[in-house]
Amino acid sequence: MKFPAILLGLQFAAAVCCAQVKVDNLLCENRTNPLGMDVTVPRFTWQLSTDKRNEMQTAYRIDISDNANFHGHVWDSGKIGSDSSVLVSYKGKPLQSGKRYYWRVRVWDNYGKASSWSETAWWQMALLQTSDWQAKWISPGYAEDTVNRPSPFMRKQFHIHKKIRSATAYITAHGMYEAQINGQRVGDAYLTPGWTSYKNRLQYQTYDVTNMLKEGSNAIGVMLGNGWYRGIIGYSDKRNVYGKDIALLAQINITYEDGTTGVIISDDSWKSSTGEIRYSEIYNGETIDHNKTQDGWTQPGFNDGQWSGVKVEDYPKNILLATYNEMVKKHETFKPVRIFKTPKGERVIDFGQNLVGWVMLKVKGKPGDTIKVWHAEVLDKLGNFYTENLRAAKAEDTYILKGNGEETFEPHFTFHGFQFIRIEGYPGDQILPEDVTAVAMYSDMKPTGTFVTSNALINQLQHNIQWGQKGNFLDVPTDCPQRDERLGWTGDAQVFSRTATFNMGVNDFFAKWLRDVAADQSPAGVVPFVVPNCLGFTQGSTGWADVSTVVPWNMYLAYGDKRILQTQYPSMKAWVDYMQHQSKNDLWQTGFHFGDWLFYSRDDDTDGTSAITDKYFIAQCFYAYSTQLLINAANVLGKQDDVAAYTALLKRIKDAFFKEYVTPNGRLVSGTQTAYTLALNFDMLPESLRPQAAQRLVENIHAYGNHLTTGFLGTPYLCHVLTRFGHNDMAYRLLLQDTYPSWLYPVKMGATTIWERWDGIKPDKTFEAASMNSFNHYSYGAIGDWMYRVMAGLDTYDDQPGYKHIRVMPHPGGGFTNATASLETYYGKAASGWEVKDGKTYYSIDIPANTKADIYLPASSVNDITENGKALAVDKDISVGAAENGYVLIKAGSGSYHFAAPAPTAPTVTTSK
């Protein structure tokens, strides 16, 4: 009798255990076990894992120690009554440079259950004080070839006399660097130290090199490249933007088993020379000559007797900061989908995807054989290799063989945007597919969003949006990755930023870049066209400079990251104040503006059909928008004096707009799609005039044969405005339009990324002007935001951003039979999907633990909807409101929900934001 009772007890205990909430996915400053952090008040994030519905955290306890066994506490928060589980701030004693800390967390839920402790996570601090740097800046000691500027190689051999407990390397450079210790590559990041406003901010990287060092002789070797620092960047062969020098700063801090410490530093004991990298420029490519290889130069015992010394330089260290964002790494690889000869007889390889990175070659040949590899995005009308749109960028890698068996080549300090390569000089008659590999490279952001529909063309559009983001999020948000530009254009980032937050975790990516926006902002508040500002322009263009307000607010909405607003608030305010100072009677009608860049325009515009929007009209709209975002940020940060002052300013801005740009009958002086879209999206019109303005927008679209005519500034908001004002059918019509100009025209023309122009390739297969025709340019991919937040209906609220309070409001339509968006939020997976089948629409919705959701489903009555086959009235897990404006409101907590309702015909859409 005892055995069954014991067994029953064990089963009950197991059930209780399984019913407990679990804590996992621990993040410190948005990263898993980050190494090298100079944030002195780090923030912690964790997820609740459970199968229960309506699971909420009611309390947490964070425990931090300087050892993995938690013997002693650096900070024990104690039990804190709070549902906060995202970006919870550290409140312990000051943290120490270079030290590793271990942390764990447990929570209590709303069912009275306490979790077990989570698994242990850790982070390691970087160098917090300038005085922590013992290393010296060093530059090559030899006379440099100032024309080709071969990559400097620097090395040092050193001896370790004791057993090592831990070792951490800190490295940065003027230029780019790649390091090895004892023949092993240090880290898996590329193009380090990344691109920042170098005169104000220079990042260094931190590496755990414990297992790379050994007792006895060791060696460290570092290659340098020109990079953005002194390489060709910007226009007109511009170089040496930040300095003519190339230099290294490296330090290895060692802790021995006996508790003592040591340090290896860059100083005058190092040696310098050159090696196989004979030329390297971002735009032009790299030349590698294996006959110049110095075998074993990064290993101990190498004879560097013929090497030169180094020069110790007095470059600043007070601008150094630890790396905050994800570094550029290798990702997907592609094998050739075809290898062929063009009509011109050139040997070309097609990888089937427009990507950013480089090609790895395996080859056998004779000493001195020279292989040249050119890169291109497209073929011309006749099927020949096309590079005119690269402008002055040569995008050419040259490899010279040593002739000692199979050799492998790949670049180090350059990157290319391409789908095709042309090869010249490859030994033999045939190139084997297994010997050629294209490698995609981009910042190591976590993929977060998926979007799938019943329409294959829309699915390809989503693919193109994601690959446009991958190819252009290469440490900074670039405008194009292939031609002689590749700059951090602020307008492009502004229009795409909300879409970007869905596809990838870009919180750290933008946090880092926004600090450079502020660093390069002028004392008067002007935000330059590109950041980092290598062009030197000090003008602020509307829609471009507004990156300083738009992107911080979008990051706050997507991630609930209040610190971004705190950090960027002075920059936000400075830009709004600049516009105010430039205005007269609250109208901003001065300065240079790009306007609605690349809007629909006809070369033979004899009948006025080019969609030209007055640039000062646009400026006034963005002046109002940035002011509103500043007010929003001030409210979040508790700056009530600013709220009052800028609220009064906003009213004056809108009054001035109405007086200057609206006729007595409610027409806008610019009658374009962009004009009506901006005026409606930014609430520039009185509510009474908004419906007729929306109708005029629709009439304009009809006048262009149901095509959009918007450029960079109007496109992101066009479909949002149509849906908001009851014209969701027109939003779908524009989405599904597949003739020029439209989102699907490039898709039908074979695009695998987003194009810079609506008609980069014309229907007759000729090209737009080569002077500005990128085939990988993410701006028009901003339609993704409408697809995710409106079509699938997965959104968040301002009151509890970052998907703490989730808004689900799907909009079935457009002839689609299904659409689903899923997003890995800080709380877990949120998803909204719908499927039309057999006269009904089925909705599948996932809400992560520790969040709540307002779910709006198209239906005329509560009684029309069931959840898991049950009437809503008997479902105790949810609460239901009455039907209003064609939607039923359902309030729900965490869990997976499956609703069914009659298929809507044309749901009425509320005109509130």
Automatic annotation (TrEMBL):
Pfam families: Bac_rhamnosid, Bac_rhamnosid6H, Bac_rhamnosid_C, Bac_rhamnosid_N, Ig_Rha78A_N. GO terms for biological process: carbohydrate metabolic process. It catalyses: Hydrolysis of terminal non-reducing alpha-L-rhamnose residues in alpha-L-rhamnosides. The keyword Cytoplasm does not apply. GO terms for molecular function: alpha-L-rhamnosidase activity. Keywords: Hydrolase, Signal. Its EC number is 3.2.1.40. It is an enzyme of class 3 (hydrolase). Residues 448-790 form the Alpha-L-rhamnosidase six-hairpin glycosidase domain. InterPro entries: 6-hairpin_glycosidase_sf, 6hp_glycosidase-like_sf, Alpha_rhamnosid, Bac_rhamnosid6H, Bac_rhamnosid_C, Bac_rhamnosid_N, Ig-like_fold, Rhamnosid_concanavalin. Residues 798-870 form the Alpha-L-rhamnosidase C-terminal domain. Residues 1-19 form the signal peptide. Residues 162-332 form the Bacterial alpha-L-rhamnosidase N-terminal domain. Residues 341-442 form the Alpha-L-rhamnosidase concanavalin-like domain. PANTHER family: ALPHA-RHAMNOSIDASE (EUROFUNG) (PTHR33307), ALPHA-RHAMNOSIDASE (EUROFUNG)-RELATED (PTHR33307:SF6). This is alpha-L-rhamnosidase. It comes from Mucilaginibacter ginsenosidivorans. The lineage of its organism: Bacteria, Pseudomonadati, Bacteroidota, Sphingobacteriia, Sphingobacteriales.
